Amino acid sequence: MTSTSSVSGLSSGIDWRSMIDQLRAAEHRSIDLVLQQKSASENKIKAWQELNTKLLSLKTAAEKLNRAQGFNLLTSALSSSSATDPNELLSATIGATGEVGSFGLEVLWTARAQKISSQGFSSQTAPLGAGYAGTLQINGRELTVTADDSLADVRNKINNLNNGEDATRVTASIVSYSTTDQRLILTSQNEGAAGIDLQPVGLPDLEAAFGFNEIQPGRDASLEVDGVPVTRSSNTITDLLPGITLNLKKAEEGTTVTLNISRDLDGVTGLITDFVEQYNQVVDFIRNQSSYNKDAGEAGGVLFGDGTLRSVKKDLVALVINPVGGVAPEFSILGMAGIKLDNQGKLSVNETTLRGHLESHFEDIKKLFIADGFSTTGNLKYITHGLKTQPGSYAVNVTQAYAPGVDIAGTINGEAAVGSGSTLTGAPGTSVEGLAVSYTGAATGEVGHVTLTLGVAETFSRLLSNLTDPYGGYVANKQTSLQSQIDGMEAKIERMESRLDSRMEIITRQYVAMEKSLGQMQSLSSWLSSQIVSLNNQ
Predict the structure, then answer these.
(1) Which residue has the higher pLDDT, 498 or 271?
(2) What tens digit of pLDDT does each residue of 96-116 get?
(3) Of 350, 349, 270, 308, residue with least CA distance to 71
(4) Which of 172, 270, 409, 462 could form a disulfide with 155 if both were Cys (CB 3.0 to 4.6 A apart)?
(5) Would you state the CATH architecture of domain 115-216?
(6) Where are the domains of the chain?
């Protein structure tokens, strides 16, 4: 129950409660200012998170172009020498290692699996009896049959042999030709002439007991490639054309299917266009954040004037305009490939120009984007490089040439390298860390140079890795700094709120005390007045 002395103005007639509320509001302005600063920092963190998302999207787009595989996009087309649809005869799937080329294919016959049938049995479920109790080896695994086993049991046991690494790859089923003619059918899961290998083990001879006979012989596929006869045990052929998987569907002797493998220039153009679009989204974000409306006197974004944001923009633009070393001079910057930089800092793609260069100078455009290494020495080859490897020419010195059982030893650019087989890799902590080369020659000493070029997509990937690294990148450090400021402001706000609450509590107690004292005085005054009135009435 609220004490009457705590009711504002009950005795004094002063609305001190409102006065205290107004005082609190006035003194809370300093806290409100800190709250506004905290909100501004939180908005900055959100803005940096949004920029980080855009930078990661740009990084993803760049990394689709910073290796040769990104440009090794191929497309295939089939045509037939007859009226037969070539897709009825075969299909082709292009892998990452596919190569441009044209091949004439004639499918003479397709591969098929061997099928074996047993003699007829009157029942699937009746025990076979002692005459069938024995062992049969199927493709190297042993099948044990007991006298109590039925035809269905034998089927199940054969199918169970398909488990594990040494599976028989033979499927068993039962075909009911009539109620008294149940036959066990064995089908090889592998196409080809090798088929099913049945070997009796001891007596009885289960192969003879079951009366197995071939109802479909296994057969290898036969085709001609540019007139050269080829056989394979499967209709799925992966080791014939480089990076191409052929799937033979139907034979048609006399019909040649021409398989044309060409560069997918539309796909490459699409990857470059996507890279440009992601770059422009970053540029738009930075420009909007950095803009200022003079008429309204307002900044365009919460990151207006931020030095780190200016640094990010500067670094990105530098990669666009700086020439790529080791590339043909006429294709050393993006603008020469049809990718122009406008006065707003945005890129635009002239697809006609870009596609024309891809058709006539594909390797030059590829080198403009990718990281690439090469050597002019035949037995010295570039393999890969590290994230910190700089472009340039690296001398390779071999002190121990590779030999069977002996790892290569030597240095790269005079710095330590680790040998494994014929591969030398720059040691951790050196300037050549991660740079790997292969040398298959027998000579020692300086055996040649490997040259590394870093295209636009690779330099973007490196910069963006530094910007977006969650543990030490520019953006992460900026967010950490802002969060530290927010944590400090939250602690400050808590202290200020506590001090203000204490001050208001003290003032409230003083007013309550005043009300109590005034109430007591008013009660005493009323009692005295009543006594005086009583005395006057005697």
Answers:
(1) 271
(2) 888 899 999 999 999 999 999
(3) 270
(4) 172
(5) 2-Layer Sandwich (3.30)
(6) 4-50+480-536, 61-69+265-369, 74-111+220-263, 115-216, 373-453
